[in-house]
Amino acid sequence: MAQDPTDGELESFLAGRADRLMRTAVLLTGSRDAGQDLLQTALERLIRHWRRIDGDPEGYLLRTLCNLATDGFRRRGLLQRKLLLLRTVAQPPADPMAEVDLRDALVRLLLQLPARQRAVLVLRYWEQLTEAETAAVLGWPEGTVKSTAARGLRRLRELADGWNQPDPALAHVRLRGDHA
Amino acid sequence: MNTDVEDLLRDGMERFTEGVAAPAGLAHAAGRLHRRRVAVRATLASSAATVIAVSAVIAVIAASGATAGRTQAQTVADLTRQVRQAVANDNLVYVGRTNGTDGPDVVWAYGRQSRWVEYWPATDYRDRVVNGKRLWDFPPQYRGQAFSVEGTALVGGKLMGAYVIYSDRKYNLSRQLPTQSSACTTTGALEMGGPATVGVNWKSFIDGMLACGAASATPRVRVNGAETTKIIGKPVTVRLPAGYSKVIRAKWVTVRWALYVNPATFLPVQIEGSTKTYGGAAGTYLSSGVTDVQWLPPTKANVARTLVIIPAGFQRVSLGEV
How does DSSP classify residue B24? Predict the structure, then answer.
């Protein structure tokens, strides 16, 4: 790419990918508003560095999204966790099996993971990238991706196992369907 | 559970983001944000002087019927000299509030200190519902919020150049203080036409505008209920530097400005500016703004407001990263 993109070029690039990228951004941040901010900031950076990007800009954009989300959550981690706790209702549902969906719970738990683990899991299981592709996007060694993903999954399994078992502390937690 | 947590996670992520779509105009908004930043950087960094054409000749004050007797009494040159003198001699804090096509901004300046805050527009001209879908240009939560602040900060007792981008929570510090370029240069012309891109010494800025020449003056023009004298600057046409030209996809810019001054003190009370870019793929784009000016006494509180405060927790980065 020899020059900065025009709005039209950027629109073409985003056609068919924007919604998917937006959903990735929402998963990385945990909310629609924060996801919008994240994606717009990443797009602005993409424009800024357009001429220096070699190859498909989507990889650059994914990497920027993850890096920005990681930076942001490093700063906002405490607040984010507090907000998630506030959304958690301590009263048991009338019918836990009907109201509680483990899949929703897993995403909530995903959002509580450290940002690097969350980014790797989003790329691996949402973007469906291989470990090598994830490593390329994040600019990390493949081994780091592997170990980070393993730690993240292990943490999710621990939390999910606890959910399935009669642990009063977890069983009474009902996670609201705050779909973005 | 151990075997299918990945599948459950995939399903969960699908459900969590179900119905999420990228907002319309995302690329446009990002592009606009980028061009805005580049424009700001260009006006502050560029020093090329390539004024191609400066039209108009200093004229005598255009007289209305009521002031026919004074028609030849005062030339525009005399008037601009008096205004320059008034601006140079005052010891007041300058406050300029601009409302323009690119959103509002506020400048506080005193001596070498300045703080220029740019805000996201409070309303969005694209904010409308079309075919059931809401179109917007800026993220709604940003409306009316500060976008960036630029100027001078006191760091360890020393005055430094400072630039903060709030949405990124980043800032840059530089030993180089904002400098004033002549109004008769490319940089000056861009600044002249767009008060929204000025974060410099405003006394020098106004002085530079006037030094570049005025085309005409008209007495007894009412602004916000008060009588003023209107000074219209010479229109300036400039060929844009190559890098800037490529970004905004226009080759030329024509800048116009007007000052409204208090006839008693000769201090400006309002500044009008417009910048028209054209001659490229982007077509013609006109950006304009009106700045209401106040001159406040240099109290401790007022002077303090002419300094940039770096918010706690913001990350210091190099200039290229903000």
Answer: B
